[in-house]
Design brief:
By secondary structure, the chain is of the alpha+beta class. The protein folds into 2 domains: about 1-15 and about 95-240, no CATH class; about 25-95, no CATH class. It is about 45% helix and about 10% strand. It is built from 11 helices and 6 strands. The protein has helices at about 35-40, 45-55, 80-85, 90-95, 115-125, 150-160, 170-180, 185-190, 190-210, 215-230, 230-240, and strands at about 1-5, 55, 60, 100-105, 105-110, 130-135. The strands form 2 sheets. The chain has a 4-stranded mixed sheet. A hairpin with a 3-residue loop joins strand 4 (about 100-105) and strand 5. Helix 5 (about 115-125) packs across helix 10 and helix 9 crosses helix 11. It is globular, with a radius of gyration of 19 Å. It starts with a strand and ends with a helix. Bound molecules: iron/sulfur cluster.
């Protein structure tokens, strides 16, 4: 199955120690079963620390340190697991973040979530409208013929994207919200509610913006994403509010 992503995704690099709002602070991170097996088999100082710093209930997760920091986040805000064992040693959530995935019948779409300040910067400063490019093929996922409803949803999303009337970073913001949230109608069929969600999210972010600098728009978008897009309850409230 082909995998597509906005072209700016290729430029994404975690800025690690330079990040002012590290995603390794304040979030409880679950460790997937496959990574857990690898961690349990690791020896040496890193293996010992991994055993000490992962709680098994209700699901394996890193035990946060003071200030809700990941126990593997160094004082320089670098990841100790990467430093000692390389990026391949990361668990699935850490390896994926800040990427999200949407599964269509005949394609997988990847995006960057704006809770990450570097992702938000790339998205909102992209010089052209959202452009999806093929990035890889997932051999173990076989494409299927999309249903008529699914094809209609994809066409509708394309129409919404091409009818964006804002310009510059505001256009990039609306495109991101459409790309991020419309595809979920694949799973719940709530197309009209998701269109309203895009409008409400756009209104909320721009109301909090100082109206002047792109860096403030990036910060407001990051805050919104951090507070709402990763919180199922708040997202549902925004979907259904009158
Ligand atoms: S928020 Fe983004 S840039 Fe910052 S540490 Fe996380 S992935 Fe890296």
């Amino acid at each position: 199955m082909k995998v597509y992503a906005p072209d700016y995704c290729a430029d994404f690099r975690c800025i690690a120690g330079s990040c002012r709002h590290s995603c390794c602070v304040g979030w409880e991170i679950d460790v997937d079963p496959e990574t857990m097996k690898r961690y349990q088999a690791m020896d040496g100082a890193l293996g010992e620390k991994l055993k000490r710093c992962i709680a098994s209930e209700p699901v394996p997760h890193f035990i946060l340190s003071a200030g809700e920091r990941c126990p593997f986040l160094t004082e320089q805000n670098l990841c100790e697991i990467i430093l000692r064992a390389g990026e391949d040693a990361l668990c699935q959530i850490c390896a994926d973040h800040p990427r999200f995935r949407n599964y269509w019948s005949d394609r997988i779409e990847i995006g960057l979530g704006m809770a990450c300040e570097e992702a938000a910067r790339l998205i909102l400063t992209s010089p052209h409208p959202l452009r999806l490019v093929p990035v890889s093929v997932e051999a173990d996922e076989q494409p299927e013929v999309p249903s008529e409803e699914e094809s209609a949803l994809l066409r509708f999303r394309d129409q919404l994207l091409s009818s964006v009337s804002e310009t510059g970073p505001l256009a990039r913001l609306r495109e991101y919200l459409i790309y991020r949230h419309l595809a979920d109608a694949l799973y719940d069929g709530r197309i009209a509610e998701r269109v309203r969600l895009v409008d409400r999210a756009f209104a909320r972010i721009t109301a909090a913006w100082n109206g002047k600098t792109v860096s403030d728009l990036i910060e407001q978008a990051r805050l919104f994403s951090n507070e709402v897009e990763y919180d199922d309850e708040k997202l549902e409230q925004l979907l259904t509010e009158a």
